[in-house]
Amino acid sequence: MEGKIPRYLLVFTLLALSGFIVLIGNITSLEDLNDQLTSNFYKIQSSIHSAFKHPKILLPAKVNHPYCAQFGQEPTAEEAKEERDLLNSIAWPGPAVQGLPLEVSSDPAKSYFMIHGPPRQHIGGQLVVSVHMQNFLGLPKKHGGDFLIARLHSPELGAGVAGKVHDHQDGNYIVIFPLLWVGVVWVQITMVHSSEAVVVLKRLQEEKPDRGVFKSMFRAGAASETTVCNLCLPLNQDPLCNYTDILTGEPWYCYKPKTLGCDARVTHFKADMKGNLITNYDAQFFQSGINLKVPIHSSGMGNVTVIPAEEGQIQVKNNQTASGYYYKNTWRPLKGQDMHQFNNATAITKCLRGKVVYMFGDSTIRQWFEYLTAVVPNLKQGNLYIPKSAGPYVAVDSKNNIMISFRCHGPPIFFTTLFTSELRYVANELDRIEGGPNTVILVSIGAHFNMYPIDIYIRRLRHIRRALLQLLKREPTTLVVIRSANMRKLNLQISLSNSDWFSQQQDTVLRAMFHGLNIHILDAWEMTLAHNLPHDLHPPRPIVRNMIDLILSQICHFEKT
Ligand SMILES: *[C@@H]1O[C@H](CO)[C@@H](O)[C@H](O)[C@H]1NC(C)=O
Ligand SMILES: *[C@@H]1O[C@H](CO)[C@@H](O)[C@H](O)[C@H]1NC(C)=O
Ligand SMILES: *[C@@H]1O[C@H](CO)[C@@H](O)[C@H](O)[C@H]1NC(C)=O
Ligand SMILES: *[C@@H]1O[C@H](CO)[C@@H](O)[C@H](O)[C@H]1NC(C)=O
Ligand SMILES: *[C@@H]1O[C@H](CO)[C@@H](O)[C@H](O)[C@H]1NC(C)=O
């Protein structure tokens, strides 16, 4: 008996080993199959020169199955076309074969980047870096879809700029950085998610949009009840209360309380995240320190020395590749805006004198309100009966005729407890604003839409854009700034609800929808990516300060010096 066990063990071990070898063999061939399949859709581009072109054909955009299609207004033909184009523009490539073991997914530790060109390069040019993704077995990846971010920086100069990543869809990526200052610059490439992890995120977005649980409390006299709410709820089960906004048609529903009426709804709040969102298999692709926001190392040199321009050197139009960069920790915009520093309350007050500043959105714009009231003590804030952190807030400097305000956006705001009377849609608030040369409107909307399919976000932006364009038609001198989303610290749980990948998709949509309008986009994405401070849902104060300085510079229309 005792002697047999080791023999069985040996047999099992051999069997397991041979199975593993066969499996690995088949995986390699699956990757080849994947390759053959996808090569019908696009040519593998391996030459660096092609990095300057966009990949010609992306994987066909999945026909979107609109979430909550039975609710909300039908888009017009024009809106539907815009939506299709937007969805095509964010189509994300990925593995053609899914469900393979972790070993064949992207491993940042086995992947590497290479700097192209000489170790000394001229300012005004572009630095080209190629990234070569490999799996945990150390074999090259054959498909694209890894979510990479890139930064070029000089720590001792407080300088940094974001790079543009081009996916060649063959496991290789090209990153382009503008060379904007003289000195030693270091390349930093980070894999936020493997393409295999993005598959999981896409699935969650489509199949589990209700993973954040909202609730409302209903009250009448001594009786109170709490029920679950969301953008849409199953129609054929318990009775619903319909809180669809009459003006915008934005849907919102709660289960009807057992004893109380729908009009007894008092509060709105986030309850929790649903559990069991993904399997243990899926969770392997979200391991902190292994394949979640992990740096990729250089196979050789990790830096180049940027030297002054040569006589007669042809300048590359660097303003095409980045919206700005940090130098001495100060943001320098590249798209023709001015940037001044507002070092103290006096300077800020002088700039804001006679202005009304409206801030609408999420907690990232509340940070701006908090920054201004902290730095400018003469902006006095009343705080009677205001739920902490939810707002709305108002601060006034009556001597200098300044008013600033913050109000959060409407559902699906995933916030602390709000009174339903304070649940307002940004578009409706904008419709009530007169506008004019002394009015500034700041909007930030994104993070709370991370959990939903992107069409929900597109619809919301459409309503806000419509309201902004009407306001600008009434009062073209109104200053309007929209803040894009920013990177944040990620772990498994946060990735499932608020991954940077969701924000990146939204960011592309937001830029496209507001492009060419008299509406400024504050590039919080690049401002957090280019900075050396760690990513945070609420960017640290030095970044907020740069954002505020950028906005104040726009408000005050400084003369170019
Ligand atoms: C591996 O692939 C071969 C053909 O390429 C096939 O005959 C075999 O059944 C496969 N093995 C497994 C374990 O899938
Ligand atoms: C909810 O109300 C809106 C507008 O009042 C309406 O268009 C929609 O059909 C209603 N939803 C349901 C499920 O009845
Ligand atoms: C740049 O990188 C090279 C190679 O990795 C290294 O030897 C050199 O010290 C680096 N330069 C600076 C200024 O640190
Ligand atoms: C980019 O720079 C070029 C020349 O430096 C300028 O002509 C162009 O207007 C700039 N583009 C933008 C969008 O600012
Ligand atoms: C405030 O900042 C302005 C502009 O930087 C500067 O000229 C002024 O001296 C500062 N005032 C105080 C009181 O520090």
Automatic annotation (TrEMBL):
Q: Where is the NXPE C-terminal domain?
A: 331-556
What InterPro entries has UniProt attached to this entry? Ig_E-set, NXPE4_C, NXPH/NXPE
**Family the entry assigns:** Belongs to the NXPE family.
Q: What is the organism of origin for this protein? A: Silurus meridionalis
List the SUPFAM superfamilies.
E set domains (SSF81296)
One Pfam family hit: NXPE4_C
For this entry, the protein name equals NXPE C-terminal domain-containing protein
Which range is the signal sequence, renumbered to this chain?
none
Task: List the taxonomic lineage.
Answer: Eukaryota, Metazoa, Chordata, Craniata, Vertebrata
* Gene Ontology biological process terms, A to Z: nervous system development
**Taxonomically, which superkingdom?**
Eukaryota
